[in-house]
Amino acid sequence: MGEKRKHSALDGWPEAGAGNKWICFVRHAQALHNVCNDNLWTPDNPLTEEGKKQCKAAHKEWGSKIFSEADLVLSSPMTRALTTGYLISGSRGDLNWMVTPMCSEKLSGANCDLGRPKPELLKDLPWMSSWKGVAELDDEWWTAKRPAEEERVTAFLDFLEKRTEEKIVVVSHGAFLEYIVGYHLHNAHHHVMPVSEFRSIKQRLARSSFNLGFALVQEYEDKTLRDLAKGPVTCFSGLGGRKQTLLSSFGIKSVESLASWKFARWAESICLLASTEKDGSTDCSKNKGKININKALDKEWEGWSMSFLIDAPPSAFAGLTPKHDETLKALGITSIKDLGNWRYYKWARAICTLAEVEAIDGSS
Fold first, then answer.
1. What is the pLDDT of residues 173-219, one digit of tens each?
2. Least CB-packed of 104, 139, 191, 257 within 10 Å?
3. How far apart are CA 117 and CA 41, in angstroms?
4. What's 93's DSSP letter?
5. What gap in Å lies between CA 11 and CA 358, rounded to an integer?
6. Within 10 Å of residue 176's Cβ, how many Cβ atoms?
7. Which residues are CB-neighbours of 54 under 8 A, at least 6 positions away?
8. Is the pTM above the cut of 0.70?
């Protein structure tokens, strides 16, 4: 893990040396969707009262020094990020502020990661009207087509490298920052790193084939497969914070439990066998001794072909409800096909399968 962890808890800027410059990455404070799943479907949530208290504490502990000495403060256009940066700075309007969608949150499928029209934003946060980047910000900036997340993160790191400022604060979001710092930051926490580390981060993001370095957060990259199987789902890059909470509601906390999740196993099997069906077959689901999967389905879905079921909502499974559909939607899963092909489930199953043939001592 090394350098990233070494600099994460600094309460001030390291001394610049050898032309190096430093970036302080800050995750927004607690917002409504962090504590209430209903607000996953509310665009651009504000901070909670607890979130505002977190900002006040952060300002006292480290924010005052970090922000006051920064040459530039960049913020995502999301209300929770903008407010966090402003409050942790001590509501200082004299800093060199800039807003940019380059460091906005990764789109998870939930509305909380969508922005608000710029006029609404400026009405609620008038103190940001003079910031750099506001005039150039599209009224509905979040609707613009985005590249793959790894490409977007790499482009942002390139942008930071080219800046002439030597001390830059970036106020952003958990899932986005996890690609950079290698773990999921807590609300209102910060991580300081030198730009010299960007090269290795971009090399990791540029990998095009499946590998554990891409699938895992940094602190788990050197673990054995057996350790990973027993490890938490947060070992996967992109499964921290909110998504961890959502999976916990299904009783899934470890990689092992995700790999054996019956609904994902059923979905995967349906996806696999759907392609083997012939058109025009009759419904034999009620006939004794004929193929059926009735025990896995709600009654209204019994008898449908597997090629039809792949487009059904997860609540077609017995044991899941429309409320579960809403939770799964926040994980990017809206159908049985999505669930059966969900990369985190497949990674978990592959790790657990290969862990069975792993030689702990490296012997053959």
1. 999 999 999 888 999 999 999 999 999 999 888 764 445 667 888 77
2. 139
3. 16
4. T
5. 42
6. 24
7. 29, 30, 187, 188
8. no
| Backbone dihedral angles phi then psi of residue 86, each to the nearest 5 degrees | -65, -45
In this structure, which amino acid lies at residue 87?
A: L
Q: What angle do CA 304, 308, 312 make, to 5 degrees?
A: 95
In the block, residue with structure tokens 């940001």: 128
Token pair belonging to 142: 């979040």
Give the CATH H-level superfamily of domain 3-205.
Phosphoglycerate mutase-like (3.40.50.1240)
Question: What is the chain's length?
Answer: 364
On whether the CB atoms of residues 157 and 198 are closer than 8 A, the answer is yes
**Cβ proximity of 237 and 215 under 8 Å:** yes
pLDDT, tens digit, 9 for 90 and up, residues 303-340 = 899 999 999 999 999 999 999 999 999 999 999 999 99
Which phi and psi angles does 252 have, rounded to 5°? -100, 115
Complete edge-to-edge strand list for the sheet that includes strand 190-194: 97-99, 72-75, 167-172, 22-27, 190-194
